[in-house]
Design brief:
The complex is a heterodimer of chains A (80) and B (530). With 80 residues, chain A is of the alpha+beta class. Chain A is built from one helix and six strands. In chain A, the strands form two sheets. Chain A has a four-stranded antiparallel sheet with strand order 4-2-1-6, with helices on one face. Chain A has a two-stranded antiparallel ribbon with strand order 3-5. The model of chain A has no long low-confidence stretch (mean pLDDT 93). Chain B is α/β, with parallel strands linked by helices. Chain B has 22 helices and 15 strands. In chain B, the strands form six sheets. A four-stranded mixed sheet of chain B has the order 10-11-13-12. A three-stranded antiparallel sheet of chain B has the order 6-5-7. Chain B has a two-stranded parallel sheet with strand order 1-2. The chains are: A alpha+beta (80), B alpha/beta (530).
Chain lengths: 80, 530
Amino acid sequence: MLTAKFTLTFPDGAIATAQIEAESADAEYNVVYSGAVDRLPEKFDTADVRVLSAWAKNVVKETGAAVNEQIEGEYDRFAE
Amino acid sequence: MKLVKPIPFKEAIEKVGSKTIVGSQLNSAEWSEVPLALRERAFFSSRVESARFLQRAQDSIGDFLAGNREPAPDGTTMLKTGSRQQFVRDMQAFALANGMGPLAPGEKGTLKDISSEQWLSLIFDTQTRQGQDYGYWKQGMDADVLNEFPAQRFIRVQEVHEPRDWHHLAEDGVWLKTDLDAWIRLNRDFGVPWGPWGWGCGHDVEDMDRYEAEELGLIEPGARPEPVDKSFNDRLEASARGLNEDVLQQLRSAFGDQVEIEGDTIRWSGKSNKPKPEPEPKQPKPEPKPEHDQPQKPQKDAKDQSDEATATQRLDEALEAAGVKGKEKVTAPEMVRLMEQLKETAPAKAGTVLATIHGKQKGALTQANMEAEVQKFLDLLPPKLVAKLPKLHLSAEVIDANGDYRLGGRVRAHSKLTHDAVEAHRVLFHELMHWVHLEGPKWYRDAIAKHFQERTAGEALTHLPGYGLLGKKDKWYEVYAGRAYSGLVDGTEVPTRYIEWLTFSPEKMARMWNDPVFRETMLLVLRILF
C-alpha cells in the first residue's frame, strides 16, 4: 500500500493536509483532509496520486502556500 | 540399446575443430563489433594474442568432445582431456610456463587473468556448449527431425545471480526452430540461433513435437517446415560482405594478415598472427561480466518493413481530420473524434490473431470479453502490422502483477480483474502494447528508445516512487513509464503506459493532451497505429 500525504503550509502558518492510501497508481481513492481545510480553494472527494499531486501544486500557485510531499510504501499491483 | 561408452558428438567436434585460430588484443566489447561471419568462425578469446595458447585450448576442447585417449604410464589408456578441471589445470600450466599471467597484480584470479580458474572455466564452458548446442541445432535441421519436432521451448535450467530481464520475458516461450529472427533475438551476445544464449546464461531449449506446435498455432497441420541452416549460413556470409573501407581498415589493423580481403568481402586467411608493429593506443573498454546483463540495442530485424515516415504523415492527417493538429487546448468531443480517426476501416479479426485463450467463468475476463478487448485493440492497428506479429496466447491467471507480457505473444491478466472491467480494459491495452512494441517494427523501438534517451539524458537510475523498481522518473505522466529493464530496449514501458490513455474518458484524455510534455510523447507513441 502506498501512502501519499501532502502538507500545505500557508503564509500565515496555518497547515492543511490531504492524504490517500493507494493500492494502485491508476484507481482513485478517498482523500482524507485535515487541519485548515477551509483554506483550500478546491477539494476532491477521490483522487489518484498524480491528481492529488497536481492539485497540491495548484493550491501552492493560488495561495502561496508551501507544500511538503511525503510518499511512503509501494503500490500493491500494477501491469508489468 | 545400452550405451556402454559415450558417443562422440560429430557436429560438435567439427564445429569446434573447424574454427580458425585468431589471436588478437581485442577485448570482448571490440570483438562484438567484428562481423558475425568472422566471429562465428574464429576460435578466439578476448585479449589473447598467443596462437599457441589458443591452439592448445582448441585441441584440448576437441579432445574432450571427441573423448580422445592417450597412453597412460601403466600401459592402459586415459582420456586426454577428461574434464573441465583437467582442462583448467593443463591450460594454467601452459599459460604460466609461457609467461601469460595477469597483466596487473590486482587482476590475479579475476576474469582478466588468463591463467585464472574463473577465466579458463569460462572458455571451456562456452566453447564446449557452443559446439554441443550447434550440434543439436544442426541435427534439428534434418528435414525429418524438423517435421516431427518443429519447435522448441526456451527454458531456464540453472539459476544465475542476475537474470536478464529480456530472457525472463521469453521464458517458457515456444517458437518454430525455423524462426531465425526469434532465436537470434534471444542470443544477443553471440548472434546465433543456438545456445549458449549469452555469457553465463542459465537458459536452454527443449524440443516441442508437432502436436504441441500445432496446438499452439505455430504450424498448420500437415505443413512441412523447411530447414533454415542454409538461410542462416547465407546471413553469415552477408555479414562479411559489403563492408565499407573504414571497417575493412579497422579489421585489417586488428588482425593483420590473419584476414583476407577481396573487394568488400573479408574472411579468415588461416595464417597465424605475427608480431605487429606497435599497436595504436586504444581506449580501454569494459569487459562483459558473464553473470550480468548487458543492455544492448535489439538485433537487426529482417522482418521490419514498416515505414516511419508514412506512419508520421498518416497520424498528422488523422490529427488534422479530428481538428486537433497543432492545437494547444482541445476538448473532450475532439478527443472522441480523434478516437474515431484512429480506428481502422478493415481491422484484423481477433479470431484470426488469437491462438489460445483461457478466460474466467464470469466477469470482465470471460473468453468472450477478453476476445472483445483484443478486438478493440486490433481496431486501432494496421492489419499489415498485425500480420507480422506472433499469434496471441491470452489467459486470466493468478500472477504477481495485474498483467504481464512475455515474448511470443503471451499475455496474462490477473484473475481478480474479472471483477473490474475498467482495470481489465486498461491492463489488456497495456500488455497488448508490449506485443506491438517488442515484436513489431524496429523503427518504432528505435524511435521510442531515442526519445527515452533524449528525455532522460544525464538522469541517474533511481528507485521509482511507489514501485521500488529502477528507472528514470523524468517528466513522464506516470513514473512507471520510466522503468528500466536490464537487456531490454530503452523506454519499454513508455508506449505501454501511454497507450492506456486511449482507455480513459474523453475528458481525462483532453486534460492530459493539453499538457505539451505529455503530448510530445503521445504523438510518438501513436505512430505505430498508422
